[in-house]
């Protein structure tokens, strides 16, 4: 499968500050890619570089096999883009605005625009300036999705949306992926990314600190384990189990609680020397994985410049 986006050693500096540092990343055609990080991590900088809205200090980016700098006009026909700060002329009616944007893309059937507006609960008769932030965001979503672009680049797409509309947005993303479209979606809301993403990248201070499927990130993360025994056990019996973190027993000595990284096989074998009455494990959510990568990066010793 070819790549919809290819980034190599991309760096962007703003004076003495770095927005991105040597970013290398591939986004496969047809996948939903979640790009995670808090505000200021470099997500919007990456997107603006991909769209040639700003220029890199060094490194390269290819989008749909084209150079954003030299092939910008063609790329804009093939991309659906929602900016994190979506702004259009406030004096227009929603329907006028969407018709104008549709014309720029070579025309979009009115039925398609009306269908998206209805699904999102958007009043197309209203003027842009009368809309709440959430309703302006709906306008942004309609214009991004309406022309069935090969690639959707969405920067914090659910900002200001209520939970019901967020769910509709996730349905639109799933439909786009099923239609063979690629979705590159930046967010700091973990649940929405976990619901639809094939892979995720976690960005910290302009540097990619993790890149994998949600399932593999979860498998490599620390899970919480609780084992109840019919009779008391000792901590020492489990001290040699690899990956067992901070094991603790309750007051009765019959319930073991710990974190576990990696395979549980040796823990299960150690526990099987006793009568086990229950065993529970809690897989981490994506937000826990996200925060664990941030905590690990913060705990790492800093090298001198």
Automatic annotation (TrEMBL):
<dbReference type="InterPro" id="IPR017871">
    <property type="entry name" value="ABC_transporter-like_CS"/>
</dbReference>
<keyword id="KW-0067">ATP-binding</keyword>
<feature type="domain" description="ABC transporter">
    <location>
        <begin position="5"/>
        <end position="230"/>
    </location>
</feature>
<protein>
    <submittedName>
        <fullName>ABC transporter ATP-binding protein</fullName>
    </submittedName>
</protein>
<dbReference type="InterPro" id="IPR050763">
    <property type="entry name" value="ABC_transporter_ATP-binding"/>
</dbReference>
<dbReference type="InterPro" id="IPR003439">
    <property type="entry name" value="ABC_transporter-like_ATP-bd"/>
</dbReference>
<keyword id="KW-0813">Transport</keyword>
<dbReference type="GO" id="GO:0005524">
    <property type="term" value="F:ATP binding"/>
</dbReference>
<keyword id="KW-0547">Nucleotide-binding</keyword>
<dbReference type="InterPro" id="IPR027417">
    <property type="entry name" value="P-loop_NTPase"/>
</dbReference>
<dbReference type="InterPro" id="IPR003593">
    <property type="entry name" value="AAA+_ATPase"/>
</dbReference>
<dbReference type="Pfam" id="PF00005">
    <property type="entry name" value="ABC_tran"/>
</dbReference>
<comment type="similarity">
    <text>Belongs to the ABC transporter superfamily.</text>
</comment>
<keyword id="KW-0046">Antibiotic resistance</keyword>
């Amino acid at each position: 499968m070819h790549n919809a986006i290819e980034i190599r050693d991309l760096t962007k500096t703003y004076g003495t500050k770095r927005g991105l540092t040597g970013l290398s990343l591939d986004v496969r055609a047809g996948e939903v890619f979640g790009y995670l990080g808090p505000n200021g991590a470099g997500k919007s900088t990456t997107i603006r570089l991909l769209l040639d809205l700003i220029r890199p200090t060094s490194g390269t980016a290819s989008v749909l096999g084209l150079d954003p700098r030299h092939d910008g006009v063609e790329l804009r026909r093939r991309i659906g883009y929602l900016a994190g700060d979506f702004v259009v002329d406030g004096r227009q009616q929603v329907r006028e605005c969407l018709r104008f944007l549709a014309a720029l893309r070579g025309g979009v059937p009115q039925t398609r625009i009306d269908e998206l507006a209805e699904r999102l609960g958007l009043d197309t008769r209203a003027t842009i300036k009368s809309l709440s932030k959430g309703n302006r965001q709906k306008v942004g979503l309609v214009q991004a999705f309406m022309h069935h672009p090969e690639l959707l680049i969405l920067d914090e797409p659910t900002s200001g949306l209520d939970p019901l509309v967020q769910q509709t947005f996730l349905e639109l993303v799933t439909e786009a992926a099923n239609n063979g479209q690629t979705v590159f979606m930046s967010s700091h809301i973990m649940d929405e990314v976990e619901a639809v993403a094939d892979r995720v990248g976690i960005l910290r201070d302009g540097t990619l600190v993790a890149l994998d499927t949600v399932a593999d990130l979860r498998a490599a993360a620390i899970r919480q384990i609780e084992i109840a025994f019919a009779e008391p056990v000792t901590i020492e019996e489990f001290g040699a189990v690899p990956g067992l973190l901070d094991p603790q027993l309750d007051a009765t000595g019959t319930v073991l609680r710990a974190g576990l990284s990696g395979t549980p096989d040796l823990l299960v074998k150690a526990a099987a020397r006793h009568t086990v009455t229950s065993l529970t494990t809690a897989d981490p959510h994506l937000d826990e994985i996200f925060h664990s990568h941030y905590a690990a990066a913060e705990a790492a010793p800093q090298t001198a410049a």
